[in-house]
Design goal:
11 helices; globular
Length: about 400
């Protein structure tokens, strides 16, 4: 039976506020593995807190397809016109530099991504596969018809990456480190699967923090008070100062997601003598049939304590995953140090289209070499995994 081809209406929105939260989130809920970062609340918080807006170099150009028969949203994607490449975690600075050295403009470019969030997941929320494919094709057509150098889709699922590849975009791979919950009863059960040296090192790190008199509070949902958000924001800013950089997010953003999506938030606060000295924020999504994923996001400290980073931002979160029955802990961008702590390398994806034919050919050749290097790197990491023989 032949299906009717729907003549969708295309929209380009300058703010997530131009589409209803219920409609957007209804599409998010259809995804097999939804992430909290595609929720309307998260994207709106970036907008209302002025974190991802025109003046910060992130000009929203959200692309939507609407079914004219019902007036309802059929597909949508968070798209931004960018004037720089900060906050993306898939690095194209060398491409931009090559453009500049040849007297060409690399910016503006189009970016389909969640700002400041290197988390793999659906980038096009859609009512069905046909609507998703149609919107993907619309994004490519929009780039071709716009005065931009390129289109980039960051951290899509593998299936979405293949879809963009079929539409002529170049595919790129990267590496993150993810921890998998093998049904552990508790943290010691997990440690028992590691090689003796790795197990001993983790126990020593935890003991140093405990012997320093540090205790921890794990707060979820409405238990996170405004004072906690103020302290966390202070820690977050300190991390950027320590790296001589400027923070992307602000207290208003954290307060907003705390009010609009508390069920997805975990805040860990480290204290000494009843005084907070460090904190870490994680976002999590429970699965409809159990399990779920925890995403490590941000950490910071106002005092230096040896090994406090590992305890606050990793071990406390691993214990939460085990206690809550979550399947996966995604540790964020980069970090080979995570391997020794039970995180295994996982390949991530991105898709790229460049308008200039010669630069597109050059980047395609570069990506072929880079992909070979990534595969060799992942194989080497897996050969040096921290688990005892037969444990994984």
């Amino acid at each position: 039976m032949k299906h009717e081809r729907i003549d969708y209406r295309t929209g380009i929105l300058s703010s997530p506020a131009e589409v209803g939260a219920d409609e957007w989130n209804a599409l998010v809920a259809r995804d097999a593995h939804p992430t909290p970062f595609l929720r309307h609340e998260f994207l709106s918080a970036l907008d209302t807190a002025r974190c991802a807006v025109d003046e910060t170099g992130w000009s929203p150009r959200f692309v939507t397809l609407t079914d004219p028969r019902t007036g309802r949203l059929a597909a949508a994607a968070p798209v931004y016109a960018k004037r720089h490449s900060y906050g993306e975690y898939v690095f194209d600075w060398a491409w931009a530099d090559a453009y500049q050295r040849n007297g060409l403009d690399y910016y503006p470019k189009l970016l389909c991504a969640v700002p400041f969030t290197p988390v793999q997941g659906t980038r096009i929320v859609a009512a069905d596969d046909d609507a998703r494919r149609r919107l993907a094709a619309t994004l490519v057509a929009l780039a071709e018809q716009s005065d931009v150098s390129s289109l980039h889709v960051l951290f899509p699922t593998g299936a979405e990456a293949r879809l963009f590849g079929e539409l002529g975009m170049m595919l790129r791979e990267g590496v993150q480190f993810h921890w998998l919950n093998d049904g552990y009863r508790d943290f010691d059960d997990f440690l028992g699967t590691l090689e003796q040296k790795k197990r001993k090192n983790i126990r020593a790190e935890r003991r140093r923090v405990r012997d320093a008199g540090i205790t921890f509070r794990r707060l979820t949902g409405d238990a996170i008070a405004d004072a906690d958000w103020r302290f966390f924001s202070r820690c977050y800013r300190q991390t950027y100062r320590d790296h001589y950089s400027s923070p992307y997010l602000n207290l208003e953003f954290f307060r907003t997601i705390g009010a609009t999506m508390p069920e997805n938030l975990l805040l860990v606060i480290a204290e000494r003598d009843g005084r907070p000295i460090a904190s870490a924020l994680a976002v999590y999504q429970r699965g409809a049939a159990g399990g779920g994923t925890l995403y490590g996001r941000y950490w910071g400290a106002v005092e230096h304590v040896p090994c406090l980073h590992f305890e606050t931002a990793y071990y406390q979160l691993l214990e939460f995953c085990i206690d809550a029955g979550l399947d996966t802990f995604e540790g964020g961008a980069q970090g080979e140090h995570k391997l020794a702590r039970g995180f295994m390398p996982t390949v991530t994806h991105s898709a790229h289209w460049l308008a200039h034919p010669a630069f597109s050919d050059a980047v395609a050749r570069f990506l072929e070499r880079e992909t070979d290097h990534i595969h060799a790197y992942v194989d080497e990491l897996r050969d040096h995994n921290p688990f005892k023989a037969g444990a994984r």
